[in-house]
Design brief:
Elements lengths: L1 H5 L10 H31 L3 H32 L2 E3 H4 L14 H20 L7 E3 L3 H34 L2 H6 L3 H6 L5 E3 L4 H6 L7 H14 L4 H15 L8 H16 L4 H12 L7 H34 L2 E3 L17 H28 L9 H10 L1
Antiparallel strand pairs: 1-2, 3-4
Helix pairs in contact: 2-3, 3-6, 3-12, 6-12, 6-15, 10-14, 14-15, 14-16, 15-16
Subcellular location: Membrane
Family: Belongs to the MLO family.
Main location: membrane
């Protein structure tokens, strides 16, 4: 038949040497170029004393090494994994699509036939199971899983880098505020010897009102505030003044904006990697991605809830600082003095906020990766996207 002639494949001993050498040369060249590029980036960061970003780059290299080891295990072990047989009844449980494999879309049928022709030789080479049993995972399935893990690692790094870039752009907008602290107008308007009523200062006035003193409306107001003005000029100046008084001499010409930028780089070093907990969440979501459960949709909501909760909490911290100033002093001298403390954070652990952001970044990257992987491997209108509008919503949330 035509299909059998199309699926005939040459073994390596029957393949032209120029084809083998050419493919190996291209793969080796790409690998060397990538390694040299990462080395040059590391040297550039070292020359500019960007130690935190250099450590983040080392984490990216370590993640690529883990990815390469996973790829090696999948490639070397695929024939052994395909020999593991399980009862057919067990194989038909917790499926992401219908067990009969019926496809409604003609393009999906064509793609399925293409995949069947592509992996027919590999599947026929795999040892068959006895009647009533099926392989644990087919060779084709292992190849698709291989692509999914590769997509996830790459997109998580890209997603983290984009987030880092947006953060730096946000902080760059504070540069002119820092420059204002060296002007004569700033020294005059914020004269340390000048006394003012607490409720007349811009920081207290911006964060305190009638609703902030009511527990019912306190967090509601903080929730909506994060959408309009995450960090205002008065917030920056007040926090800067508190930091300098606490850690340096009053009136010091310390560049607080550069300090915040370095702190962002330190935080980026922590969120760029994939921890064992994040890999475990990846495995759990794959396990629960059963047809009809809509687990991945609810999983796409979790990062949104986390980010909104973190934003609300940070706004609540600023508001509580302003309330404490107004309750502690009726009159202040110069800029209001805020006193940062771990007590404002959940369970007294500021690091928990960073862990939550790390988890949200990974889950967002996973949602986008999963959508693109299904599009690449099975088609945009495959059975994984039985509810296509819901799939678009998941990707949009990411």
């Amino acid at each position: 038949m035509a299909v059998s002639s199309e699926t005939h494949e040459r073994e390596l001993d029957q393949t032209p040497t120029w084809a083998v050498a050419g493919v190996c040369a291209v793969i080796i060249i790409i690998s060397i170029v990538l390694e040299k590029f990462l080395h040059k980036v590391g040297m550039w960061l070292t020359d500019r004393h960007k130690k935190a970003l250099f450590d983040a780059l080392e984490k990216v290299k370590a993640e690529l090494m883990v990815l390469g080891f996973i790829s090696l295990l999948l490639t070397f072990g695929q024939s052994y994994i395909a020999r593991i047989c399980i009862p057919q009844k067990v194989a038909d449980t917790m499926l992401p699509c219908r067990a009969d494999g019926v496809l409604d879309d003609s393009s999906s049928r064509r793609r399925l036939l293409w995949l069947e022709r592509r992996y027919l030789a590999a599947a026929s080479a795999a040892p068959s199971c006895k009647e009533g049993y099926e392989p644990l995972i087919s060779v084709n399935g292992l190849h698709q899983l291989h692509i999914l893990i590769f997509f996830l690692a790459v997109f998580h790094v890209i997603y983290s880098a984009v987030t880092m870039t947006l953060g730096r752009l946000k902080i760059r907008g504070w540069k002119h505020w820092e420059q204002e602290t060296s002007s004569h107008d700033y020294e005059f308007s914020n004269d340390p010897s000048r006394f003012r009523l607490t409720h007349e200062t811009s920081f207290v006035r911006a964060h305190t009102s009638f609703w902030t003193r009511l527990p019912v409306f306190f967090y509601i107001g903080c929730f909506f505030r994060q959408f309009f003005r995450s960090v205002s000029k008065s917030d920056y100046m007040t926090v800067r003044n508190g930091f300098i008084i606490l850690h340096l001499a009053p009136g010091s010409k310390f560049n607080f904006q550069k300090y915040i930028k370095r702190s962002l780089e330190d935080d980026f070093k922590r969120v760029v990697g994939v921890s064992p907990v994040l890999w475990a969440s990846f495995v759990v979501f794959l396990l629960l991605n059963v047809r009809g459960w809509q687990v991945l949709f609810w999983a796409s909501v979790i990062p949104v809830i986390i980010i909104l909760a973190v934003g609300t909490k940070l706004q609540a911290i600023l508001t509580k600082m302003a309330l404490e100033i107004s309750e502690r002093h009726a009159v202040v001298q110069g800029i209001p003095l805020v006193q940062g403390s771990d007590k404002y954070f959940w369970f007294g652990r500021p690091q928990l906020v960073l862990h939550l952001i790390h988890f949200a970044l990974f889950q967002n990257a996973f949602q986008i990766t999963y959508f693109l992987w299904i599009w690449y491997s099975f088609g945009l209108t495959s059975c994984f996207h039985a509810n296509f509008k819901l799939a678009i919503v998941k990707a949009a949330l990411g």
